[in-house]
Amino acid sequence: MLDVVVAIPTFRRPQSLKRLLDALEKLDTEAAVTVVVADNDAERHEGFDLCERLTSYRWRLDHFIAPERGIAQVRNALVERSFAHPCRFIAMLDDDEWPEPGWLDAFLRVQAETGADALHGDILREFETPPGRWAARCEGIAPLVGETGPVAMIEGSGNILVSRACFEDLAKPCFDPAFALSGGEDRDFFERLRRQGRRFAWAREAVVRAWVPASRGNLRWALARAYRVGNSDMRVFLKHAHSTKDSAREGAKIAAVLLLFPVLFVILALASNRAVDALRRLFRTAGKIAALGGRTYNEYAVTHGA
Fold first, then answer.
1. In-domain check, residue 306
2. H-helix or E-strand spanning residue 53
């Protein structure tokens, strides 16, 4: 029997956390599961209080308050707390996600088949308000899906399964506190694993659903998200040593978007599903340029959903 910790960071989303914990109770698995919840809100601690009330929960439930604010900080606290429990793997779910019953065993099956050190699964969205046509294709709103098998890189930390050894062998802290409220700590984490020679895979049947509130299911938020991703990706790029060739390639990408965007947008204006991709590239490039100038966009200073 495999021991797995499911690690959940939460901040002022007690309703979403309750939905996630209820879904975890319905898992169809033979694994020995421990659920670790870190409430990153020392003031209101609604997530911690919710866990306190779950006196007959199916799995071992370890909940605590992680007082230092920041997504990187709470992830580091979760890793350290998870080490207190027997586990071969640590799965991470965001508090606005919830898994299907076969989620965990799908992860474990693909891990056994591929020997991957870290895996990502599909994320399907459910909406408070249907997104507009332009927004529906954007990152964070469109479904995040892949084909089962090895992949070159994992970009995010929502719906992942990672071997305990990955965390143990990485220099601490595992998640860089410099990305506290900006996001990008997960991209940096996987870049460090990649440089160690760790192997990644996608598990398509390890499905979670993710709730998208009305404040996020729109083009305005999607473009702000594209800006943030560009900003944090460039900060990760600048943090790690790269060859002159890699730096030149990144500079060429930025220049190409700036030079070609006006023409592309006019040409594609009649096909909104393609025009929005050009618009997203522009905002992402703007985020990269801001990072080159030393500016940081703190997306996670605002909480969406309940």
1. no
2. helix 46-53
Query: 185 and 293, same structural domain?
Result: no
| Coil, helix or strand at residue 203 | strand
* Buried/exposed code over 272-290 (b: 16+ C-beta within 10 A; e: otherwise): eeebbebbbbbbbbbbbeb
Strand positions, DSSP E, 166-239: 200-212
Give the DSSP per-residue string, 286-300. Answer: HHHHHHHTT----GG
- Per-residue pLDDT of 42-99, as tens digits, reads 999 999 999 999 999 999 999 999 999 999 999 999 999 999 999 999 999 999 999 9
62 close to 35: Cβ distance less than 8 angstroms: yes
Q: Lowest-pLDDT range, 19-23, 86-90, 114-118, 285-289?
A: 285-289
Domain shared by 99 and 187, yes or no: yes
